[in-house]
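tokens incoming
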């Protein structure tokens, strides 16, 4: 979760009770959501590590607002973090379906990213 508090407030505004409940169960409070936020770390921590990131976005994602994701990408890049972004259409809500072309493309991209970033380890 890139920004738990942002997503929680988004869920409250949209009346998405399942997301609201899940956030409160996991993070316990809005303060907990803010403290666990990679977005906050990127914006406020002067010396955070910047590993390569493959950010895979789902077109028309109803659970992860595009504005939230774009803000993270921009912040990470601004701080010098290497991030690759790819948007997918037609991915299932949960898991991957290897009979679907977009799932195969996503899995191939993950494998390629892992190969490129672990080759020298």
């Amino acid at each position: 979760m890139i920004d738990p508090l942002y997503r929680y407030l988004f869920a409250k505004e949209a009346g998405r009770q399942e997301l609201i409940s899940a956030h409160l169960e996991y993070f316990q409070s809005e303060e907990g959501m803010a403290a666990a936020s990679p977005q906050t770390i990127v914006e406020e921590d002067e010396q955070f590590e910047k590993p390569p990131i493959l950010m895979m976005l789902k077109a028309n994602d109803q659970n992860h607002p595009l504005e939230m994701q774009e803000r993270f990408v921009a912040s990470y890049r601004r701080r010098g973090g290497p991030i690759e972004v790819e948007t997918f259409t037609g991915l299932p809500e949960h898991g991957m379906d290897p009979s679907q072309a977009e799932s195969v493309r996503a899995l191939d991209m993950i494998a390629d990213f892992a190969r490129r970033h672990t080759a020298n380890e």
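note: The chain has a mean pLDDT of 89.
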